[in-house]
Design a protein that fits this description.
This protein has helices at about 1-40, 55-80, 80-85, 95-120, 145-160, 165-195, 195-205. It is mainly α. It starts with a helix and ends in an 8-residue tail after the last helix.
Length: about 210
């Protein structure tokens, strides 16, 4: 009886936590920071291209992935019984995975917001070819060259642990691939923009995480 009660309690928790989490993540880490930076620099920091280039295609895939992930979380909120049991990875239905996932998601949200705040006016969604932004190497950037992408990846890992379905695993894999492509595009741009300063920084700090 207690097991059944606990199961339904956790089902209700996941049903509400995951959609609300990603709504908060989007509002804080995209809308809020975009508005703040735009107000200071006088232009939209979202500089993802809308052309037919390979980079433009990556941007569209990012948006599509975010859209379908948001849609999936809304379906979870509206139809929890059906979504919770569809393509579920049964051996991961353990409290350990659920709690670990929730903790990772919360840490990732704080981490991403902190990294974006530390970037100040250098923060962009995409590559800004029209402005020379300051290279940020302090704060979380002492441990990761890409702390925002690291936090987003951890958030997706936490999502998968808390809600282990094949669909969430696909979101994790696609999101990780797109972020790794974006990271390399941005690294090429930063090397051209900052030259030796960025090269020295690149040699001393890991792409995702330095543990020293």
């Amino acid at each position: 009886m207690n097991f059944v009660k606990n199961f339904y309690a956790m089902t209700d928790f996941i049903r509400f936590f995951i959609p609300l989490y990603f709504i908060l993540f989007f509002l804080v880490s995209f809308v809020g920071i975009s508005f703040s930076v735009a107000k200071r620099i006088g232009k939209n920091p979202n500089v993802l291209p809308k052309d037919d280039s390979a980079y433009g295609l990556i941007g569209r895939y990012f948006k599509l992935t975010l859209f379908f992930m948001f849609l999936y979380t809304m379906l979870l909120l509206l139809f929890p019984d059906g979504v919770l049991q569809t393509f579920r990875i049964s051996f991961m239905k353990r409290d350990f995975f659920l709690y670990s996932g929730v903790i990772l998601m919360i840490i990732a949200l704080v981490w991403v917001f902190t990294a974006q705040w530390q970037m100040k006016d250098s923060w962009r969604i995409g590559i800004d070819n029209d402005s020379k932004t300051k290279l940020v190497t302090q704060g979380l950037f002492r441990f990761s060259r890409n702390p925002v992408f690291l936090g987003m990846t951890v958030s997706l890992i936490g999502f998968f642990l808390a809600f282990p379905t094949i669909i969430v695993l696909i979101f994790l894999l696609i999101g990780s691939i797109l972020m790794q492509i974006q990271i390399r595009l941005e690294e090429e741009f930063l090397l051209k923009q900052h030259g030796q300063i960025y090269l020295t920084y690149k040699k001393s700090v890991g792409r995702m995480l330095s543990l020293y």
